[in-house]
Amino acid sequence: MSFWEYVGTRHAQLLTDAYQHASAVFQCMVIATLIGVFLGVVTYRSEWAGSLATTTTATVLTIPSLALIGLLIPIVGLGVAPTVIALTLYGLLPVVRNAIVGLRGVDPALVDAAKGIGMSRAARLFRVELPLAWPPILTGIRVATQMLMGIAAIAAFASGPGLGNEIFRGIASLGSANSLNQVLAGTVGIAVLALLFDAAYVLIGRLTISRGIRA
């Protein structure tokens, strides 16, 4: 059976796996973005606090994804839980680092001007600093998403959702008629999802970043 014949006969299952893969990455990126931006806001004013946040989240990336998911299984069990925890942890570093860099890169004169017209600290943060820091933050989100697309495939080890199940099934049955088709289908599917997500981020950037900031 050729690759395209295999895709044609298994398209329903492949679409289901692709949806679950995309959904897991999207939801984990939402969580990682909220936590990462929060950590950036809390720590960017202090050099040591920013370094601590960056170093701590960077340390997570030194743990092999298979090992981290394996360590989580006895604690939270199989399925969605270890997948969500692992992906969220792995997605933090680019968001935290870029949030800190972006917030520190805001022109102090603009912040002082906002303060001079009576804006509170929260108003300055949400109406001046975060909008100006958004381009690097969005870049961090894009980088983290591309990372998680590949790491999410490992979640199949813990009975997690996504296209990793195709890859693992193919590897487990190497030598059978469709083993290579399974691995290829899972790999190509992840690559296509990564491209679609990146295109979506480009569109979001064009819609949310003013031309002046892009320039």
TrEMBL record:
Source domain of life: Bacteria
Lineage summary: Bacteria, Bacillati, Actinomycetota, Actinomycetes, Kitasatosporales
Ranges annotated as spanning the membrane: 24-44, 51-73, 143-163, 183-204
Bilayer topology term: Multi-pass membrane protein
Location (main, coarse): membrane
InterPro entries: ABC_transp_perm/SBD, MetI-like, MetI-like_sf
Family: Belongs to the binding-protein-dependent transport system permease family.
Keywords: Membrane, Transmembrane, Transmembrane helix, Transport
ABC transmembrane type-1 domain residues: 18-201
A Pfam family this chain is assigned to: BPD_transp_1
Identification of the protein by name: ABC transporter permease
Location relative to the cell: Cell membrane; Membrane
CDD domains according to UniProt: TM_PBP2
Native source organism of the sequence: Streptomyces endophytica
